[in-house]
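Support request from a user on the community tier.

User writes: "When I paste my structure tokens into the form, the page sometimes reloads and wipes my input. The last time it worked, I copied everything first. Here is what I submitted, just in case something in the input itself triggers the reload:"
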């Protein structure tokens, strides 16, 4: 699959998730065969004002190419200037625009999914950004703002006409947040009206779902977000199923535990032990979801403060679970 001039090896992508898809986790997903990685969403204004927490969000490892940095904002000039700055300073492959975030703080600032209510403004943002950088600009948006305003189809055409080189559509409205079932029909309708690649997002939980979304919606690619939490192996599974129809078994407990410790080591290296281990608590809960007797481990992990403690807990877990 090609996005502008960028070739993607696999059409299975890791959906951006603020607070989850940081550099260590993305590196792991790339190793598992994820075709395109996205940064967590980054505020264009925060980059402009040199917010110190923003720097880490823009960092990525060289193995992450091709990577999209996702920006959010509402001012076309600031968005265009920051796209250029981010490209110049990081050398990323794609700049993606977040036009789907449902969080009130973001929407009230006329950012994220608010932009679905103002197609003219959204168009100006895309056009200015596309003119500001030589790399592809892509857009991620939703089905619409609420059930009275389902405009993904016209929004998609607007995005294409404004210069977007790929779009990703999450089949829920802003009002729905992440609840209920994603509407794949709207994703299919979007695919029918544009010529740029379309990626579907929403409720792809396993290899069969991915294949079904591609078959039913005729999309060029699929995006996996929540189902990838604690399960980077999903990319290996989906790729094998899409390419050869092979169903790969989920890894056993020893492999899961080995991955948790490796992930933790990378988090500690990237964020320091204090933050890195705290970040790992939620990942451990995801990694061990559904495992027999894992609730004790999940409860105990919330008290863990050092890598050593985590290692002891996980090694004990291997024997007890
Ligand atoms: C915790 C969380 C954080 C998210 N952060 C972002 C984000 O920063 N940018 C974005 O475009 N989408 C974000 N999303 C939306 C996902 O990328 C995806 O479109 C959505 O979760 C539906 O796909 P899924 O069913 O595979 O999870 C987030 C979703 C979750 C659950």
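"...and here is what came back when it finally went through:"
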């Amino acid at each position: 699959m090609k996005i502008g001039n960028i070739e993607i090896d696999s059409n299975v992508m890791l959906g951006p998730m603020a607070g989850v898809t940081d550099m260590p986790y993305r590196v792991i997903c790339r190793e598992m065969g994820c075709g395109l990685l996205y940064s967590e969403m980054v505020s264009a204004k925060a980059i402009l004002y040199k917010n110190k927490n923003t720097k880490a969000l823009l960092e990525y490892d060289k193995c992450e190419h091709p990577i999209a940095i996702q920006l959010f904002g509402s001012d076309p000039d600031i968005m265009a200037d920051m796209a250029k700055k981010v490209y110049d300073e990081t050398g990323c492959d794609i700049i993606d625009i977040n036009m789907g975030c449902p969080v009130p703080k973001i929407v009230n600032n006329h950012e994220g999914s608010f932009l679905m209510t103002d197609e003219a403004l959204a168009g100006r943002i895309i056009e200015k950004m596309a003119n500001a950088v030589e790399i592809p600009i892509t857009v991620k948006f939703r089905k619409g703002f609420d059930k009275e305003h389902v405009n993904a189809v016209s929004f998609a055409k607007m995005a294409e006409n404004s210069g977007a080189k790929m779009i990703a559509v999450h089949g829920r409205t802003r009002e729905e947040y992440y609840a209920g079932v994603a509407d794949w029909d709207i994703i299919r309708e979007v695919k029918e009206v544009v010529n740029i690649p379309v990626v579907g997002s929403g409720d792809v939980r396993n290899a069969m779902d991915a294949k079904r979304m591609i078959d039913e919606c005729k999309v060029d690619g699929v995006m996996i977000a929540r189902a990838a939490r604690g399960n980077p192996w999903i990319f290996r599974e989906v790729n094998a199923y899409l390419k050869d129809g092979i169903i790969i078994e989920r890894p056993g407990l020893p492999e899961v535990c080995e991955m948790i410790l490796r992930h933790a080591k990378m988090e500690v290296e990237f964020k320091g032990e204090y933050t890195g281990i705290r970040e790992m608590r939620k990942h451990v809960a995801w990694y061990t979801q559904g495992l027999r007797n894992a609730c004790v481990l999940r409860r105990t992990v919330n008290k863990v403060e050092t890598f050593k403690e985590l290692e002891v807990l996980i090694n004990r877990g291997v024997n007890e679970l």
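Agent notes: The reload is a front-end session timeout and is unrelated to the input. Residues 253-287 form the longest helix (35 residues). The chain has two domains: 2-244, 253-320. Escalated to web team.
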